[in-house]
């Protein structure tokens, strides 16, 4: 019985460590969700838009330059949270359903693209603020167009991340199954919006499709983060694994000498 007791204690430690890992994954997802939501609300209030005039962009570079500094800070924290989440959620989902592994890898690879392109977007903004006194109107417009082009292409990266991570979460029974077609639709909207890249870069209404898809991305992050923090329902294999060997279904009886 001492052997059984030791095994039981080891299993309980494993369960506690698993719950801690799950909570950390949920916290990372919600951290990224909160920072991205804050960034978009801030940019929505202050502007400028993709089709902004030179004077509107100049306002960002001077009166609202503080927002660029804040964007860099939130980007650094948010991308660390996203990359940690995407790098670890795959193994977590695969333990619950091996079929989720390939989808999670697609999502994780896509988040790297998202992180890189958003990094370039922030570099352009920082460059414009740092060199604002030496930029003429033509150069301001050129840099802002480049900024918009990176944002447009990044919608495709977000779409693939949503498709991969969303499908993995559904297969792992982490989120409701109705979210699978919703995330797939959101991914399609994001990729389609990035298609007419030149038009969207210049402020085409096609970008509204991307905004709709991005709202689904935020919904996925929020639901996944909350589900992980609350603790998802254990699968049959997980529930059985937490029991002592003599209580598991199909286990041979334990005899005492």
Entry keywords:
0% strand; 9 helices; disordered N terminus; elongated; mainly alpha; 257 residues
Fold and architecture overview:
- There is one protein chain.
- Helix content is 79%, strand content 0%.
- It has helices at 2-46, 54-61, 65-96, 100-130, 137-171, 179-194, 197-201, 207-230, 236-241.
- The chain is elongated, with a radius of gyration of 23 Å.
- The chain has 257 residues and is mainly alpha-helical.
- The longest helix is centred in the N-terminal third of the chain and has 45 residues, at 2-46.
Q: What order do the helices and strands come in, and which of them pair?
A:
Blueprint: H1 2-46, H2 54-61, H3 65-96, H4 100-130, H5 137-171, H6 179-194, H7 197-201, H8 207-230, H9 236-241
- Rg (CA only): 23 Å
Secondary structure category = mainly alpha
Mean pLDDT value:
86
Number of helices: 9
pLDDT < 50 stretches: 3-15, 236-257
Indicate the proportion of strand residues.
under 5%
- How far is the N terminus from the C terminus? 10 Å
Percent of residues in helices: over 70%
Order of helices and strands: HHHHHHHHH
Which term fits the overall shape? elongated
| E-strand count | 0
Largest sheet entry: none
Q: What would you say about this model in short?
A:
The chain contains nine helices and no strands. By secondary structure, the chain is an all-alpha fold.
């Amino acid at each position: 019985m001492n052997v059984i007791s030791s095994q039981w204690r080891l299993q309980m430690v494993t369960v506690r460590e698993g719950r801690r890992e799950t909570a950390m994954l949920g916290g990372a997802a919600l951290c990224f969700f909160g920072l991205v939501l804050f960034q978009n609300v801030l940019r929505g209030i202050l502007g400028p838009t993709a089709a902004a005039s030179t004077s509107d962009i100049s306002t960002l570079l001077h009166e609202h330059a503080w927002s660029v500094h804040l964007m860099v800070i939130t980007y650094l924290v948010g991308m660390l949270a996203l990359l940690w989440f995407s790098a670890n959620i795959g193994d977590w989902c695969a333990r619950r359903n091996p079929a989720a592994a390939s989808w999670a890898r697609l999502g994780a690879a896509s988040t790297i693209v998202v992180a890189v392109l958003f990094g370039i977007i922030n570099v352009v903004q920082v460059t414009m603020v740092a060199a604002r006194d030496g930029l003429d109107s033509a150069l301001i417009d050129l840099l802002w167009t480049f900024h918009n082009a990176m944002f447009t292409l990044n919608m495709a990266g977000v779409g693939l991340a949503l498709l991969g991570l969303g499908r993995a979460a559904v297969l792992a029974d982490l989120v409701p199954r109705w979210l699978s077609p919703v995330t797939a639709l959101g991914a399609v909207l994001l990729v389609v919006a990035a298609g007419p890249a030149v038009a969207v870069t210049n402020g085409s209404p096609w970008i509204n499709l991307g905004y709709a898809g991005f709202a689904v991305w935020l919904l996925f992050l929020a639901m996944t983060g909350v589900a992980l923090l609350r603790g998802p329902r254990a699968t049959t294999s997980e529930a059985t694994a937490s029991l002592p060997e003599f209580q598991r279904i199909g286990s041979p009886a334990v005899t005492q000498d």
